[in-house]
Design goal:
The structure holds two protein chains of two kinds. Chain A is mainly α. Chain A has one domain: ABC transporter involved in vitamin B12 uptake, BtuC (Orthogonal Bundle), CATH 1.10.3470. Chain A has twelve helices and four strands; from the N terminus they run ααααβαββααααβααα. In chain A, β2 and β3 form a beta hairpin. In chain A, α2 runs antiparallel to α3, α2 packs across α9 and α3 packs antiparallel against α9. The longest helix of chain A has 31 residues. Chain B has 17 helices and 15 strands. Chain B has two domains: 212 residues, Response regulator (Rossmann fold); 180 residues, 3-Layer(aba) Sandwich (Rossmann fold). The N and C termini of chain B lie far apart (79 Å). Classes of the chains: A mainly alpha, B alpha/beta.
């Protein structure tokens, strides 16, 4: 019973982390049909931004809640800036090109941004554990849970609810849905698709940065964290379906629970299970769980 | 070209030009083995300068090289290493970042040897990179000294001619870990492990569990966890350990993984439930400080850092390093220092007159040498005289709140022949065979 409960909680924590990172990626793909490799850089910048904020704020005797807010806001401001520079400066020049070209451009951007991180923050790693330890823990039987992890689950749930509400009940959400469904028809109806692209890309960047900020207290913030997370995010998005936010949520839950179960019960397959699940889903639903095959447009 | 002179057997002019050019082209290929004037010795130093392994390993290793080479060039290293540079020739170092795929690393190695014409390469932290570079070093006949990677496989797979490793292999770390654990916690009933899922982590766990099986067969293994290298998130692993019955947790985690794991486990009080045995934590203790739990059983990949013997040589090295970098040297810096000293000794032994010795001469001189450095005495006694063994030490970590600095207490030393396999026997076979011949 305790093991089952542990698997559930661990699965939810991992799913929350994956969802926060993957939702921005799937949003950008859904609207702009770009597989954005530079999304890993948004995550990295968010983590480094949070590390900077933690270094400024914590250990000064100020209320912890302010520190959590500062981390998130600082990271999202970085995400906004980087997203805007990348979209207006680079991406808009290659819209309409072949998809492989778009992927290569985002990969080039990713490599450049990794070097920008070294220029700004240096090659060393940053320890930013203060929010994690400040949050404390909760004991349930033999299991001790980190309150930070429980907060992570709540944050992901809030983000999922906010995304759903924004898409369904706001004007921008409806415009976005129209562009996702059919870009050309949306443009023909007078929707400013270029503005939608810019706003979507920037929101995706801010969400990626937020993911990095949230994870920063749990990891050693260092180069290479973006690479690790982008591979996982791709797997989640592939399972859920490119462009589907509810798909990203379900994909994250499936990956999280399966991985947690593997670690507890069969640790030898832990590395394989994420990609095994992805392969299984794609065999049955080649476009992911929530996306149907689209007829080719001539 | 087709005149009468040519028909009578005289070579045309263009063929002489071609032969001259071909002759000139062979000179670089022979440079490694042709005696040459020894005004400067060029070394390639390869270490992680960026990425997660930089701060705890790569940069201390690089710093160790930098400060020791400066001392060598000034002739201020304690005797018998007090000759300037290598045998009177100053040493010049080129530093290369080890970050990148194995293919990148091998390319950089070839660049150092073939393009930059270095006299030797000292480097490599990743066991994967060491395994990739070894056959290339042998192919190019390039003197190569691995300074940190721990896999025993390098000299067990086949004999090597030009590759050396002064630093002891990881088998020593884990056999000593088992001995220290059983000395300090003789009542342990079961233990678990969390190690990175690649050569280093797998070999570490194999050697540790093998040693425990020989020394305490009734102690059982509970959980064997192998998360991905640089996974970063260990929530499920920590839950698994919290719900287990283990009293001890073995880990060979290093750098970012070790730090992330320790922060996450402290948030959930895992170290209050079980003792952590961290074979490489010495490299992180000055960074982690009071975040490394008191009571952690700690290793330093040999007698390095606070585990090093209290000798004049060690005190000298600690002083020059701390004066320069404002932090005491950790084990990568010691390993680099010992590797450089070993190469210097071999070079000076091989050198005759002013000419640089050839790679073959240096290799012959390097084989089987024994010397004392900041980490104590090391002898290249196994791996056909290419692999070093030394004593080692383990201790218990404590953060001294009065002095506000980390320290290691309850130090136990293990002789080299107690924790290293004898010559001619692989590490795995030695452990499986009950560690026959171990002299403790």
């Amino acid at each position: 019973m305790l093991t089952a409960f542990a698997i559930l909680i661990d699965g939810l924590v991992y799913a929350a982390y994956l969802f926060i990172v993957a939702v921005g990626l799937t949003l950008i793909f859904g609207v702009m049909k770009i597989l954005n490799v530079a999304h890993g850089s948004f995550y990295t910048f968010g983590a480094y931004g949070a590390a900077t904020a933690i270094g400024i704020y914590f250990d000064r005797g100020l209320p912890d809640a302010g520190g959590f807010l500062l981390m998130a806001v600082f990271a999202m401001i970085l995400g906004l800036a980087i997203g805007l520079i990348l979209e207006r400066g680079v991406m808009r020049l290659v819209y309409g090109r072949d998809e492989v070209v778009m992927v290569l451009v985002t990969y080039a951007a990713f490599l450049i941004l990794e070097d920008v991180v070294i220029l700004v923050w240096g090659p060393g790693s940053y320890a930013t554990y203060q929010p994690l330890l400040a949050a404390g823990s909760t004991e349930i039987g033999a299991l001790i849970l980190s309150n930070y992890d429980l907060g992570l689950i709540a944050a992901a749930a809030l983000l999922a609810a906010a995304s759903w509400w924004a898409l369904k009940f706001t004007r921008y959400g409806r415009l976005l849905t129209a562009v996702i469904f059919d870009r050309e028809t949306a443009a023909a109806f007078g929707i400013n698709v270029t503005a939608v692209y810019t706003i979507t890309f920037v929101i995706g960047a801010m969400l990626g940065a937020l993911g990095g900020a949230i994870m920063a207290p749990k990891i050693a913030v260092t180069l290479g964290i973006g690479v690790e997370v982008i591979v996982l995010a791709f797997a989640v998005v592939a399972i859920g379906g490119m462009g589907s936010i509810e798909g990203a949520l379900v994909g994250a839950l499936i990956v999280g629970i399966c991985r947690a179960a593997a670690v507890h019960l069969v640790p030898q397959v832990e590395l394989f299970v994420i990609y095994g699940v992805m392969a299984l889903v794609l065999m049955i639903r080649p476009y992911g769980l929530f996306v149907r095959a689209q007829p080719r447009r001539i | 070209m087709f005149n009468r002179g040519s028909s009578r057997g005289r070579a045309p002019a263009w063929s002489w030009l071609l032969a001259s050019l071909l002759g000139l082209a062979t000179i670089p290929a022979q440079a490694q083995n042709a005696p040459s004037s020894a005004t400067t010795i060029k070394l390639g130093i390869v270490s992680f300068l960026t990425g997660p392994a930089a701060a705890p390993f790569g940069i201390p290793g690089r710093n160790g090289a930098e400060v020791l080479i400066e001392a060598m060039n000034a002739g201020t290293v304690p005797a018998p290493f007090n000759k300037v540079g290598f045998g009177g020739s100053s040493v010049e170092a080129k530093y290369i970042d080890e970050t990148g795929s194995a293919a990148n690393v091998v390319t950089e190695f070839r660049n150092l040897v073939q393009r930059d014409q270095v006299d030797a390469v000292i480097g490599y932290i990743s066991s994967g990179n060491c395994l990739a570079v070894t056959p290339v070093a042998e192919e190019l006949k390039a003197i190569t000294v691995f300074y940190d990677c721990g896999t025993p496989r390098i000299f067990e797979e086949k004999p090597r001619a030009y590759v050396f490793r002064v630093s002891p292999q990881s088998t020593m770390d884990n056999v000593a870990a088992a001995r220290y654990l059983l000395a300090k916690k003789p009542d342990v009933v079961s233990y678990s492990g969390i190690n990175q899922n690649y050569a280093w982590g797998q070999d570490s766990w194999r050697d540790f569990t093998g040693a425990m099986q020989v020394l305490a067969p009734k102690v059982t293994v509970d959980k064997s966890l192998f998360p991905k290298l640089f996974a970063g998130e260990y929530g499920a692993e920590i839950s698994t350990l919290l719900t287990s019955k283990s009293q001890v947790l073995h880990t060979s985690f290093y750098d970012g993984d070790l730090e992330a794991f320790l922060y996450q486990e402290q948030a959930r009080a895992l170290d209050k439930r079980m003792t952590i045995l961290a074979t490489t934590a010495e490299a992180a203790m000055w960074r982690l400080r009071d975040k490394l739990p008191d009571g952690t059983l700690i290793g330093g990949r040999g007698p390095n850092g606070p585990l090093a013997p209290d000798t004049e040589f060690n005190r000298w090295f600690k002083k020059i390093y701390t004066d320069r970098y404002s932090i005491p040297p950790t084990y990568p810096a010691y390993q680099m220092a010992m590797s450089l000293l070993g190469l210097k000794m071999a070079y000076e032994k091989a050198r005759k007159g002013d000419a640089k010795p050839t790679s073959d001469e240096v290799a012959a001189a390097f084989k089987g040498i024994e010397f004392e450095g900041p980490s104590g005495v090391v002898k290249l006694a196994i791996g056909d005289g290419h692999q070093g063994i030394s004593e080692t030490a383990y201790g218990t970590y404590r953060f001294n709140k009065t002095k506000n600095e980390p320290e290691i207490v309850d130090i136990m030393r293990f002789p080299a022949e107690c924790v290293n396999p004898p010559a001619g026997v692989t590490a795995d076979d030695w452990i499986k065979d009950g560690m026959k011949g171990a002299k403790c």
